[in-house]
Structures
1.
Amino acid sequence: MDKVYDVAVIGAGPAGCMAAIQASKSGAKVVLLEKNKELGKKILLSGGGRCNFTNNTSPEEFIERFGKAGNFLRPALSVFSNQDVISFFKDKGLKSRIEKDGRVFPVSNRAGSVLDVLRRCLRQETVEIFYNFRVQRIIRDENYFCIYIKGQNILKAKKVILATGGVTYRATGSSGEGLDIAKSLRHQIVEPTAGLIPLILKENWIKKVQGIALDRVKLIFRAKNKKIASGIGGIIFTHFGISGPLALDLSGLVAAELKKQQQVSLFLDIFPDISEQEWDKKLIGLFKDRGSSRVKNILSSFLPLRMVDTLSMVFGFDTACRASQLDRLQRLAIIRAFKKIVFTVKGTLPLDEGMVTQGGIPTREINPKTMESRIIPGFYFAGEIIDCSASSGGYNIQQAFSTGFLAGRSASYG
Ligand SMILES: Cc1cc2nc3c(=O)[nH]c(=O)nc-3n(C[C@H](O)[C@H](O)[C@H](O)COP(=O)(O)OP(=O)(O)OC[C@H]3O[C@@H](n4cnc5c(N)ncnc54)[C@H](O)[C@@H]3O)c2cc1C
């Protein structure tokens, strides 16, 4: 007879690794199946190679970050919270540091050190790992799940945890095969779209400011004059449009609107904490006090010179003249450039460039207390394959760890 396991975990990203560790810790005979020749390829890319593996925020803020799916995640987060994740890694010798907006990174600044801990735990828990093992089909017979690669039934398991990730950055292995497997077992799929994806803007002048990062701006996206998303935070201009934490966080809502063929406009306020009236007063004072200075020298104390030059071209104000020569209309043009830049959003980068997938297995088809399928008993889900994603900041890897932990523990019982 084929080899039989208590639990087979498919996919060795953060969700699958944590699920396998927990299932084995609870006494199950576990196999971890990974199609790549190594673990966690996506983890290595995460957080710019530094892996922002959780966030130090409150439980309520955590739930909020997942929007409509937040409540689904409540039980998983309560059994394995962000603080539990930090302690888990600390106990295994990985120190972490809290950075801006509560983002938690390893002190080593190496995503590889998160992976090293997972690898060590899998070894300690004697989880059997099969690499280059691309699961193509799963069939439920009377007693077991039969797992197939290349048309051959290779092994059997009493329980299965599907942790094959989303559909973006396919080169890392997450290419959506898990969704096909779930579909073949009668699960519905919420059509996957990219979340956390850079936006393409129509205005060509954006190329002139590429690479410039602004720490605190306000973005408002509107479609048919209705506000669809807004927020304050950091952005970076690229050669095609904008990226950076705030633009990425709002991109999912924008992408959904674009899909409905709506025209989306973006309103950028570079200085959300200073009103137009305050700017007017400030500039009048500055231009009076420093009347013999060039306008560009004064404005470059607020923005990078390249940005000032580009805005002067787009909004038609003179930066080469002396401050005392600037008239009211030119001053108002500067204020418009600071507070009211309007862009047209042309689209997003291709699906594969999304840092997270929106969509996947609908949460209503999964028991949130166990991560077990409500359609197929003994079948579990963990990680990004579930339709439950959040903004950037370490929330998505935490989701993978929490759901993986809960699925692993639940699957090893009974
Ligand atoms: C560039 C980038 C940066 C990111 N940075 C961060 C960050 O700093 N913080 C954060 O919280 N999130 C970040 N994310 C998101 C985060 O990496 C994912 O949400 C997380 O990795 C999901 O974990 P997972 O285990 O569910 O899936 P994955 O990590 O995608 O792992 C799934 C695994 O399943 C395997 N697999 C797939 N199909 C099969 C099959 N048929 N048979 C066998 N194995 C299979 C894949 O090879 C893969 O190893 C980032 C994502 C990207 C792309």
2.
Amino acid sequence: MTTSPLRVLPVEWLPAAQMKRIICHWTAGGHKATEFDRGHYHILIEADGRVVRGTPSIDKNAAPVKAGYAAHTLNCNSGSIGVSLCCMAGAVESPFNPGKAPMTKAQWDKLAVVVADLCQRYGIPVTPQTVLSHAEVQANLKIPQRGKWDFTRLAFDPSIIGAKACGDRLRAAVSAHLKTTKETS
Ligand SMILES: [Zn+2]
């Protein structure tokens, strides 16, 4: 695998394409990426922080979407990169129960690095409309979703509650990483 020094994702995972936004999910599965999980997202992050490439290539989701694109967000796949954390099988939002595969701090921390990488590669700004979780799509993009709650809770930090609180924390971490990258390049 080829990586540039400041990049966590191999360059061959990042084909040239016009991409507008990054939508972050969890798989509602186990801590490892299955073939089924890989079919729905461009990039997955396992519980220990390992990154796994999904089956669809990112450029399949450039507008207009091509056959075999990643169908990760209802009515919002065109121009959208889908990244997913492998976790939260059997989880319940309220009363909160993270289930048998809770989101780990390691995969959350890796998410910020992966998203920063994608922002840099595709020239995507860090805003609530362009870097967001699935749970924020309805409020931030006005595209109705069917009660998706990835992410309204972070299993490793129960003090963070709600889609906006989780999304803001993600964007702050991505911005901090982009700033560090700029300073060291
Ligand atoms: Zn989702």
